[in-house]
Amino acid sequence: MSLFKARDWWSTVLGEKEEFDQGCLCLADVDNSGNGQDKIIVGSFMGYLRIFNPHPVKTGDGAQAEDLLLEVQLRDPILQVEVGKFVSGTEMLHLAVLHSRKLCVYSVSGTLGNVEHGNQYQIKLMYEHNLQRTACNMTYGSFGGVRGRDLICIQSMDGMLMVFEQESYAFGRFLPGSLLPGPLAYSSRTDSFITVSSCRQVESYKYQVLAFATDADKRQETEQQKLGSGKRLVVDWTLNIGEQALDICIMSFNQSASSVFVLGERNFFCLKDNGQIQFMKKLDCSPSCFLPYCSVSEGTINTLIGNHSSLLHVYQDVTLKWASQLPHVPVAVRVGSLRDLKGVIVTLSEDGHLQCSYLGTDPSLFQAPKVESRELNYDALDAELKELQRIIKDVNKSQGVWPMTEREDDVTISAVVSPDSDSVSQAPDVEVGTDLVPSVTVKVTLQNRVALQKAKLSVYVQPPLVLSRDQFTFELTGECIPRVTQCKFRLPLKLICLPGQPSKIASHKLTIDTNKPPVCLLSLFPGFANQSEDEQVNVMGFRFLGGSQVTLLASKTSQRYRIQSEQFEDLWLITNELIIRLQEYFEKQGSKDFACSFSGSMPLQEYFALIDHHFELRINGEKLEELLSERAVQFRAIQRRLLTRFKDKTPAPLQHLDTLLDGTYKQ
Q1: pLDDT(82) > 90
Q2: What one-character-per-residue DSSP string does 527-578 give?
Q3: Domain that includes residue 540, residue range
Q4: For residue 220, which of 244, 327, 346, 542 sits 20 to 30 Å off, Cα-Cα?
Q5: Which residue numbers delimit the PTHB1 GAE domain (predicted)?
Q6: Residue 69 included in any domain
Q7: Could you tell me how far CA 359 lies from the centroid of its own chain?
Q8: SS3 of 449, please?
């Protein structure tokens, strides 16, 4: 056993095929227990929020059921989690969860349990802010020197800083010359925000300058700024580091000094709070995350740096003091106090490996026994080797791999989709144009091995599909088990598509090559062709609800299929459905080597044209909203003038105000 290896104190794997990043991990006393012990808060891009309180019986134990305090699935991906004083009127800690278009603040509380599973934890939404722009990251602190509460600053993907004073929105400012967002941090000593721009330079902006700058309603300079009547946003200081930054961290050791730490792609920088370089270190391996913390030696700084070689390096200033091996590549690293053990290193990988470890030098107690010298019987060894080879060969012939037994979950969910549409449509909008909108019934079955206290079922479908009911809650009498399970199901194509007339002429065509003989389209899409036609159907038409037409052709001589339509965006659904049904068809035939390919050039021009058209529609929509706002202001002004005329005791001519009011209303 190597001395230079992180000692596994507690570890677990989160979910299946979930993704995580540097903002998805946080350590804090989120339930305000007051015992000085941190809880591990983890959010994932799949929308799962988990809170752990590890209690390993012995070092290296995996996660037990009671270690998971809470597990909930939120509707949107979780970009970042932070804990602070985010609710007005109290200095209790609350949990802030950043989604791409929403900021939610929750309170986490626990109640004493009556069963052996211990306390029960739940979260309560205190408030939320719907964001007008797509978020990238956030930071928090006592902006402007406020006391007893924390404010939140969110950076959008287009370089706008949005400041929230707890339950209310304060202001938004665009960073000058911003192209791509970078890491963001707040320095309480200088009351400034520090980020790294796409120009590869560290930039610092004072909070007071941000607060008094001209409001960022638009990206362009306003006329007030050009005339000089509004304050422009200016940077406090900049430093060119010549590379992109992965993360920024601010460390304040006392009221007189603080340091800005920047982790680049190849170097590690330590800056003074005025932007001067204090020291820098060239890294040997590509870094993935870092965490500065106070050193026991006065005047020095310790830094944990994880890299893509699965190593965790400990630096004191620029000197490497320790290097330990991790079982995964960390994307986030934190240090906290867990179960009276201070200085526990918590790491999280991008695929959900969560580990609590410490840097120990426990010696290996294993000693290899002395080997007794004896003469070898080569004939017996040769016979044993042949026997083992025969056993291995027989196993490979029979099944290849030993069967793996799956662990049965406490709660399982399954869905069965009815093959026929409902006789009476349950759609809220029964008609789309001249087409009747069908509906289909999905039967969802919940099975549990243990008694449950409360089960909540949520069903999601992609728009434009809608549900008659998407939430179900079952109140039961059993134990409280925080678990989330899910299953996926496919809906029938007839729900949004009807048989249509094939068309030989189309503006957009897509050809799919396969390695198997062509299949009769009637067997792939039963119900979408007339049974009286020739059984070898090689052309089939589809019509979406609303009128769009798609034609599918199968070659009689080659192993190709062609999908064509007048609109490029209509091709993907039939193409995807064709590939899935071909795979299912050949799996039933016992063929496992079926493959599809596309040999033509990528239709990027059409794809970009759709993006440009969508962008043009968005611009036109904003122009129409501005025009509507102007007409509304004009309409209210005319109403006030008319009301003044009508209230006047001496009658006066309307001067065509009624005509102007009618014309403005029509506009």
Answers
A1: yes
A2: TSS-TTS-SS--EEEEEETTS-EEEEEE-SSSSEEEEEESSGGGHHHHHHHH
A3: 496-606
A4: 244
A5: 437-491
A6: yes
A7: 32
A8: coil
Q: How far is CA 68 from CA 50, 217, 299, 579, in A?
A: 7, 44, 39, 41
Q: What is the pLDDT of residue 429?
A: 75
Position with higher pLDDT, 567 vs 300: 567
Q: Is 397 left (phi over 0), alpha (psi -120 to 50) or beta?
A: alpha
Size of the chain in residues? 667
- Answer for the pair 343, 295: CB distance below 8 angstroms, yes or no: no
Asked if residue 359 is part of any domain, the answer here is: yes
Q: Specify the CATH number for the domain of residue 243.
A: 2.40.128.630
Closest-CA residue to 138 (of 167, 107, 160): 160
Residues 625, 585: one domain? no
Lowest mean pLDDT among 243-247, 372-376, 583-587: 372-376
* CA–CA distances in Å: residue 262 to residues 259, 290, 320: 10, 9, 17
171 shares a domain with 114: no
What pLDDT is stored for residue 534 in this prediction?
52
The mean pLDDT value of the chain amounts to: 86
How confident is the model over 420-442, as a mean pLDDT? 82
Single-letter amino acid, residue 330 = P
638, 644, 650, 655 alpha-carbon torsion, rounded to 10°:
-10
Among 130, 151, 170, the domain boundary falls at 130
Residue 435, pLDDT > 70, answer yes
Residue 598 in domain: yes
pTM of the model: 0.62
Identity of residue 458: S
What is the domain count for the chain? 5
Work out the end-to-end distance of the chain between its first and last CA atoms, rounded to an integer number of angstroms.
80
Query: Do residues 24 and 332 touch, judged by C-beta distance below 8 A?
Result: yes
**Measured on CA atoms in the order 623, 546, 510, 491, is the torsion positive or negative?**
positive
Pick the closest to residue 123 from 74, 59, 186, 182 (CA basis): 74
pLDDT at 217 over 70: no
* 83 Cα distance to chain centroid: 19
DSSP 258-293: EEEEEEESSEEEEEETTS-EEEEEE-SS-EEEEEEE
> Residue 306 pLDDT more than 90?
yes
* Domain identity same for 147 and 271: yes
The domain boundary, picked from 364, 382, 412, lies at: 364
- Which amino acid is it at 242? G
Give the CATH number, domain containing residue 351.
2.40.10
241 and 266 co-located in one domain: yes
Q: Confidence band (pLDDT; 50, 70, 90) for 546?
A: confident
Q: Of all residues in the chain, what percent are helix, strand and coil, respectively (each to 5)?
A: 20, 35, 45
Q: Are residues 161 and 277 in the same domain?
A: yes
Residue 382 domain flag: no
Asked whether the predicted pLDDT for residue 479 surpasses 70, the reply is: no
| One domain, residues 177 and 202 | yes
Which residues lie below 8 Å from residue 390, measured CB to CB, with a gap of 6+? none
Q: Are 354 and 42 in contact (CB under 8 A)?
A: yes
**116 and 160 belong to one structural domain:** no
pLDDT at 370: 65
Sign of CA dihedral 640, 643, 645, 648: negative
The answer to which of 523-532, 633-642, 658-667 has the lowest mean pLDDT is: 523-532
Q: What is the DSSP letter of 78?
A: -
SS3 640: helix
Among 38-52, 71-85, 209-223, the range scoring the smallest mean pLDDT is 209-223
Instruction: Give the C-alpha separation, 68 to 90, whole Å.
Output: 27
pLDDT at site 223? 42
Which residues have C-beta within 8 Å of that of residue 71, sequence separation ≥ 6? 48, 49, 50, 51, 482, 483, 484
Helix 657-666 to helix 604-647 angle (10° resolution) is: 160
> Which residues lie closer than 8 Å to 29 by C-beta, 6 or more apart?
35, 36, 37, 38, 39, 83, 93
